[in-house]
C-alpha cells in the first residue's frame, strides 16, 4: 500500500474541486437556460452528430459513458419533452433506436451557443493552447485506463 | 459567439469522458468496499484532517464544494451510520458543527487504503510526474475561475 505523494495529493484535490465546481456550474447554466441537466444536453448533442440523428440505445450509453438504466430514464424524460423519440430497430428486435426530433434539434441549436460560451469561460479562455493539449492527453490516458481491461466494469455494460 | 476549435473539442470530449468514467469508477469502488458514495468519503476524509476532527457545516460545504442542502442530506445519513454527529456551535447559535466520531474515523482508516489504491490505479500510476504537475495547474486554474467573481454562484452559498 502506497499513499499519494504530496504532489499527487495536491493534484488530486485540485482536480476534485475543479470537476465538482464545473459540474455544478454547467448543470446550473443548462438548467437555467434550457431546463435540462448537462447529461441531457450531451445526449442531444451526441445524437445531432450522427447520420440521420439516430443511434442505438446501447451505443448512445457507451458514447456518453453512462449506464443503460440511467439512459432509459433520461430518454423517457426527453421523449416527454418531445425532443427525442424511440423506434424499434428493424434488424434486431431487442434493440431500440433513439432519434433526435426536429423540435429536439431546434432546442439544441438554441441552447448550444450559451453552453459553449459557458464551457469557454470556465475552461478554454483560461488555459493556454499548451495546457489545452496537456488536458486532452491526460484525460485520454485516464479514460483509456478505465476502459481496460476488456470486460471492465464499464457503466454501459451493466 | 465563438465555437470551440478542433483542439478544444478534442480536449473537452476526452475530459468529459474521463471525469464521467472516473466518478462512476470511484463511486462503485467505495459503494462496494465501504457502502458509501465518493462524496461521503470526501466528507469523512476532510473532517479527519482538521483539529479535533470537527468543522462548521458551512465551512465543510465550502471545502467539499457542495450546497448546504446536499451536505445536510449526507450528514443525516452519515449520522445514522454513527460515523458523524452534529453539535450546536457555542459561539453562534445558528451555526452547527459536524464531528467525525471514533467509529467514523475507524471506518475511514479501514477504507482509505483501498480507495487510495483505486485513485492511484486510475490516475497517478498512469501519469508521468510532469503530467501530474500539469493536471494540478490546469485544475487550479479552472477551480479559481469558478470561485470568481466574488459573490459568484458557488454551491455552498446557496
UniProtKB/TrEMBL annotation, chains A, B:
Source organism superkingdom: Bacteria
Stretches assigned to the HTH marR-type domain: 8-144
InterPro entries: HTH_MarR-typ (IPR000835), MarR/SlyA-like (IPR039422), WH-like_DNA-bd_sf (IPR036388), WH_DNA-bd_sf (IPR036390)
Name used for this protein in its record: MarR family transcriptional regulator
